[in-house]
């Protein structure tokens, strides 16, 4: 099957060996992220996703925050492996932080009370779509990335460091950079297990 969109999303992989030799400038990467998020769908067109893009010192500061936070809770004998993993993220060109604005969700819950329980769920759908869109867009530029979840452990310090609104709820961190080692072969479960078609 030949389809440019399917080819694009198939190119998106979790890349852990990152470098700083990316093909795009920080301004071009920022513009790409903005467009990918802007065109990502959300329930009731809520546009609840919020994004912070970190480069240079700010990017390194984030992974210092993660490291110092985890050092307090990870057993000393296991921290070496954790530190190596975090260093691989810090070696990249930047990090994208994905948030959801809870103020938007709260307002929708008030406005459409019948769906109140669903809006937090739909918000998770929205951020997932935005993350996937950005990840795939980066892959098209031969920029590697992975998706990390050190929230909520780092939430308060991240908000304080970059003076972010209290209503922004951190959902994921996406370190990105040049692909220093490609992803390994990916395996798939059988179509018979995963899909059912009725006519």
From TrEMBL:
Q: Which GO terms describe its cellular component?
A: cytoplasm
Q: What are the GO MF terms of this UniProt record?
A: oxidoreductase activity
> Which ranges carry the Nitroreductase domain?
9-177
Is Nucleotidyltransferase among this UniProt entry's keywords? no
InterPro entries tied to this protein: Frm2/Hbn1 (IPR033877), Nitroreductase (IPR029479), Nitroreductase-like (IPR000415)
Mostly located where? cytoplasm
Which keywords does this Swiss-Prot/TrEMBL entry list?
A: Cytoplasm, Oxidoreductase
From the Swiss-Prot or TrEMBL record, state where the protein is found. Cytoplasm
What's an example GO BP annotation here? cellular response to oxidative stress
Signal peptide segment: none
Q: Does the keyword Oxidoreductase apply?
A: yes
Annotated SUPFAM superfamilies: FMN-dependent nitroreductase-like (SSF55469)
Tell me what this protein is called: Nitroreductase
Q: Per the UniProt entry, what species is this protein from, by scientific name?
A: Sodalis praecaptivus
């Amino acid at each position: 099957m030949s389809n440019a969109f399917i080819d694009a999303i198939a190119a998106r992989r979790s890349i852990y060996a990152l470098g700083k030799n990316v093909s795009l400038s920080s301004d071009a990467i920022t513009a790409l992220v903005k467009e990918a998020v802007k065109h990502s769908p959300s329930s009731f067109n809520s546009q609840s996703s919020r994004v912070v893009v970190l480069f240079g010192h700010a990017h390194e500061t984030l992974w210092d925050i993660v490291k110092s936070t985890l050092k307090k809770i990870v057993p000393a004998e296991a921290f070496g492996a954790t530190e190596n993993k975090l260093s691989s993220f810090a070696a990249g060109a930047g990090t994208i932080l994905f948030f959801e604005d809870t103020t938007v969700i709260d307002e929708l819950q008030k406005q459409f009370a019948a769906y109140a329980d669903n809006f937090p769920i739909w918000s998770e759908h929205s951020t997932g779509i935005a993350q996937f869109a950005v990840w795939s867009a980066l892959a098209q530029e031969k920029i590697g990335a992975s998706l990390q979840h050190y929230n909520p452990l780092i939430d308060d310090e991240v908000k304080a460091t970059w003076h972010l609104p209290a209503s922004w709820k951190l959902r994921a961190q996406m370190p990105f950079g040049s692909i220093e080692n490609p992803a390994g072969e990916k395996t798939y479960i059988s179509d018979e297990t995963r899909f059912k078609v009725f006519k």
